[in-house]
Amino acid sequence: MSGNVELVGVGKRYGSVQALGQIDLTVERGITGLLGPNGAGKTTMLRMMATVLAPDTGSIALLGRDPSRAEDRVEIRRRLGYMPQEPGFYRNFTVFEFVDYVAILKQVTVRKQRHDQVREVLGMVELTSLAHRKIRTLSGGLRRRLALAQALLDHPEMLLLDEPTAGLDPEQRLRFREVVSQLPKRPIVLLSTHQTEDVAALCERVIVLVEGNIRFDGTPEAMSGIAQGRVWIAPEPGDEAMLSWRTGDGKYRHVGEPPPHAALVEPTIDDAYLLLAGDGVGIST
């Protein structure tokens, strides 16, 4: 087994709902974006990689270890940073106390070393000045930054981020991109998001999940290319479009199958995502 993340034939079902269906996937070092509509299976996949869930079928190898073995699971968790979509906080803890507690759980036992790490990650997300504030007094955006801070502890080899920019204002989202793009030692980063602009700005690779299956796996540039010849501008809405909207200049941008002589424009990753999630296109590069 390698130091990558490897899923082979991984499936997961909740009652009658197939959350993931026979996924084969290898994730290497670098930043990989995970896109998909609600209910596509993104969070289920991340929870498996975080050793929170076990697959019903198939096998998973994480950083060269088997999470189904208790001794391997402990070692994986020491080398893992995980920011869940809905992190649980001890509301009466201060910001510093909470991150320190997580560091203890990760078995950073030397007090000075642990506190130095806590200060480091709070600085990375610009929470140093709030270190002694109670978590219950923080806004939603500040709590997202706190959740990111604890995930960055001890320079993880694998970083799993589930909707990390939800609730952040534009400046905070740019700060997030700066932090993740400059992580030392080039860890494996898997970023699940609805923000296609974050994927375009940060990710070397993007995976689109739809109904528990991989519909696209490739670069952001290759993904945008899926919509080539399928995006056009017109003065009025068009019946041919899968989706259209009025832009700021009063014209309509259309995505779908263009009519003859349409005024085609360069597509974006958003256009490609609409096609992938909406009409069953299956492309892998």
Short overview:
The protein has 285 residues and is of the alpha/beta class. The protein has helices at residues 42-49, 70-78, 95-105, 111-124, 140-151, 170-181, 196-202, 220-225, 269-279, and strands at residues 5-14, 17-27, 30-35, 57-62, 80-83, 158-162, 188-192, 205-210, 213-218, 231-234, 241-246, 252-256, 263-264.
Outline the structure in words:
This protein has 285 residues and is α/β, with parallel strands linked by helices. It folds into three domains: 1-79 and 158-211, P-loop containing nucleotide triphosphate hydrolases (Rossmann fold), CATH 3.40.50.300; 86-155, no CATH class; 223-279, no CATH class. It has helices at 42-49, 70-78, 95-105, 111-124, 140-151, 170-181, 196-202, 220-225, 269-279; strands at 5-14, 17-27, 30-35, 57-62, 80-83, 158-162, 188-192, 205-210, 213-218, 231-234, 241-246, 252-256, 263-264. The chain has a six-stranded mixed sheet, with helices on both faces. A four-stranded antiparallel sheet has the order 11-12-10-13. Helix 3 (95-105) crosses helix 4 (111-124). It is globular. Residues 280-285 have low confidence and may be disordered.
CATH class of the largest domain: Alpha Beta
Low-confidence stretches: 280-285
Count of folded domains: 3
Tally of DSSP helical segments: 9
Keywords:
285 residues; alpha/beta; Rossmann fold; six-stranded mixed beta sheet; four-stranded antiparallel beta sheet; 13 strands; 27% strand; globular
Layout of strands and helices, then pairs:
Blueprint: E1 5-14, E2 17-27, E3 30-35, H1 42-49, E4 57-62, H2 70-78, E5 80-83, H3 95-105, H4 111-124, H5 140-151, E6 158-162, H6 170-181, E7 188-192, H7 196-202, E8 205-210, E9 213-218, H8 220-225, E10 231-234, E11 241-246, E12 252-256, E13 263-264, H9 269-279
Parallel strand pairs: 3-7, 3-8, 5-6, 6-7
Antiparallel strand pairs: 1-2, 1-4, 8-9, 10-12, 10-13, 11-12
Helix pairs in contact: 3-4
